[in-house]
Amino acid sequence: MAQRLRICTVLAIAACLLSSCGMEPIQSGDDSAPVGTAKIADRIPSESSSAGESGAETTTDAPAESTGAADTTASQTQGDGSLQNGVWWGVGSNDDWYFEFTDGNKGTVIYQSMGAALNFEYERSGNLVTFYMGTRDNIKKATVSDERDDRFTLSFEGGDVQVLTKQEETSLSDFHFYSTGKLIEMARARETAANSKTYDRTETDIDEDGNIVIRMYQDGKGDEPYTVSIDRFTAKAKDSLGYSFDLSGYGDATN
Hints:
Lipocalin
């Protein structure tokens, strides 16, 4: 018993000496991470902690070098209730659309199938966007998802989905393409001029490379179509017989 008292007395005296020197005694049972690392909890800032509570200057770890994954989601939330300005190519489930978003929640859309432009206004609340296409009575609602710096998705009521990719052009007036209707006209004109052929009906599609595919039929000549695959931006084409040619010189080669 006397020995225990002596030990406790020595420990008490040692603690007092350390305290008077401004040092904190080392606590036993510390679960610190190995030297050179920090515990996960140390990397998570506490809302209640501040420099003023401890009187000591606080420091934070330098951000880790970006791998690119986090950067792509930097603009997932548009705090001003808008979509990112610029020109966007929308690859759709039924038709491709080209958007230009401008200040004041306004914009223009051009449809690949027709080449017709339509001005619109829109409102955004969270991930819900309400478009007023041409007039306030023509309403289309869509949900925004996968929103990144260079792309996002608009899922419209009714099932149409547009996956938008940002383009280098800043205005649709600088964004040139041939509409599907114009490419049909050009392909027909070439067949008439080069092969003296006319076709009664056409079908169109978009292949996995983004080319416009036109299938042309002659009534009474069987079900096998004459097929042309066309680059919508250059009018360079290749047909089902293996011939390559340029359609830009046929028909009224304007958008």
